Automatic annotation (TrEMBL):
Record keywords, A-Z: Nucleus, Ribosome biogenesis, rRNA processing
InterPro entries: Fcf1/UTP23, PIN-like_dom_sf, UTP23_sensor
SUPFAM superfamilies, per database record: PIN domain-like
Organism: Cyanoderma ruficeps
CDD domains linked to this entry: PIN_Fcf1-Utp23-H
Family membership: Belongs to the UTP23/FCF1 family. UTP23 subfamily.
Domain UTP23 sensor motif region: 192-211
Protein name: rRNA-processing protein UTP23 homolog
Subcellular location: Nucleus, Nucleolus
Region ranges (Disordered): 185-249
GO terms of biological process kind: rRNA processing
Length: 249
């Protein structure tokens, strides 16, 4: 397998994985034309396809495809044997089988919820598949299996999806301005300030501060009493000295 072809397939698989949520094991629906081309070009689908898709793959078909191959006789007997080895997926045509292409198209209706790949050499079926977004298409060319690039329908779908999800910068600024205009930003700030004031000081710390102030207030009062006592004692001493002096005279 060429390195360039492998890189090409890996890039396309990344597109479908990222934008359409394709996951292993990949569900590959094959019709009779793809099985016939694989037989003619000696391609081992079961062995080669998982390596090309870089992941586990479940090969499957429908009973309508088998019925169509049986109706075409011996020319496609080998293709029928190959298709019968794959898993069968239930379709809605149990009583009235339809052509393989019609059946496969019905399997990918409603947005391809089962994430099927379509493997076919039918050009008309390929064109109809490309009109639906998100459906990988496989075909055989020059003895190799090829994963077709995403169709314009798939690319347009992804572009539209991204444009609806992403918000441009100018719209983000408009949203901020509208919030400010409606006062939503101010209300949020007021709520934060209210929560901050609700805490308040610790009552125990307040009591400690009050005790400290009381003790500090008592110290000046005691010093004042001591000074008054000393002053009285000094006055008494001076009075005694004055009396003794008068008596001596």
């Amino acid at each position: 397998m060429g390195v360039t072809r492998q890189k090409h397939a890996k890039k396309i698989m990344g597109f479908y994985k990222h934008n359409f949520q394709f996951r292993e094991p990949f569900q590959v629906l094959l019709d009779g034309t793809f099985c016939q081309a694989a037989l003619r070009n000696k391609i081992q689908i079961r062995e080669q396809l998982p390596g090309y898709l870089d992941g586990a793959a479940q090969l499957c078909t429908t009973r309508c495809v088998i019925k169509e191959l049986e109706s075409l006789g011996k020319a496609l007997y080998g293709a029928k044997l190959i298709a019968q080895r794959f898993q069968f997926r239930n379709c809605s045509h149990h009583k009235n089988p339809v052509s393989g292409s019609t059946c496969l198209l019905s399997m990918i209706e409603d947005g391809n919820p089962h994430h099927y790949f379509i493997a076919t050499q039918d050009q008309d079926l390929s064109n109809k598949v490309k009109r639906k977004p998100g459906i990988p298409l496989l075909f055989i060319i020059q003895n190799t299996m090829v994963l077709d690039k995403p169709s314009p329908k798939s690319l347009a779908f992804v572009q539209k999806l991204q444009s609806n999800q992403l918000v441009p910068e100018y719209q983000k600024q408009s949203i901020v301005e509208l919030k400010e205009k409606e006062g939503l930003v101010k209300q949020e700030g007021e709520k934060r300030r209210k929560r901050k004031r609700a805490g308040g000081p610790n009552p125990l710390s307040c009591l400690k501060k009050k005790k400290k102030k009381t003790q500090e207030g008592q110290e000046p009062s005691a010093d004042k009493k001591k000074r008054r006592k000393r002053k009285r004692n000094r006055v008494k001493a001076e009075a005694m000295q004055s009396v003794q002096k008068n008596e001596g005279e």
